Amino acid sequence: MNLKNLKNEVLLQNTKNLIKEENRILAKVLAHFQEIESRKLYLELGYGGLFSFAVKELGYSEAAAQRRIEALRFLKKTPEALPIVEKGNLNLSNLSLLERITKEAQATHAQNVEALNLIQAETTSAAKAENKLREFFKLENKKRVISMEVDEETYQLWLQTKAKMGEAKDAVVLKKLCQSRQQSESKKTQPKVRQAPTARIAGVVLRRELLKEAGHRCQYVSPINARRCENQHFLQCDHKVPYCLGGETTQQNMRVLCQQHNQMVYQNLKSINL
What we know:
Structural class: mainly alpha
Radius of gyration: 23 Å
Shape: elongated
Oligomer: single chain
Number of strands: 2
Largest sheet: 2 strands, antiparallel
Strand order of the largest sheet: 1-2
Number of helices: 12
């Protein structure tokens, strides 16, 4: 592609047209994301959530995947934004920003539409656009900045931890790690009580043994591509032979599944029984 002979005004106009076309394509991409989510296709492929699917199956960076999922969330609750995106008049960054701010403000649908109208033609920096929305919703800036220096080994461990948790934002990862630490300390003080195999739910001791055996990770393996889910959060203890069909609550008859895959297995079981 040789652009050197283009006049400045033509080059500029062509660039603007391409950006609008890029935004129109975005609408199609987000529509596909929405259909994938509605079918829960990522679960069948062994992914615990849409975020890890977008990163590892579709090849997006963590930040890019997060922005598209946030944009999808806003479009689902504010369909009025879709034709604006299709026309190329609303970009991905502003869609993502709208979702984050309206979620924080717990905005109504009417407020979402007002915020959309306020920001759709915004051409200033992301910081100014965020300030405008925060002012509109009368939101205070509750963020705190933590700055620290770490060696290369610690930095790589941090990146690995974020990847395993399927989260792009440092603040969210830090919060989850702190909460997990508090929960672990709380569990240490609980007495070890063995339970009967006829109990409905796995107790503290059995759950701890199951999690250790699973490596604190969902044990679902996709029958399509033999991929094991990497989700390490919201883990649940599930009966291989369902409890309602006489399955015992023992280590041999139980496995660890993330919340999403546990729900999928349950829905599949219901459809078979129907």
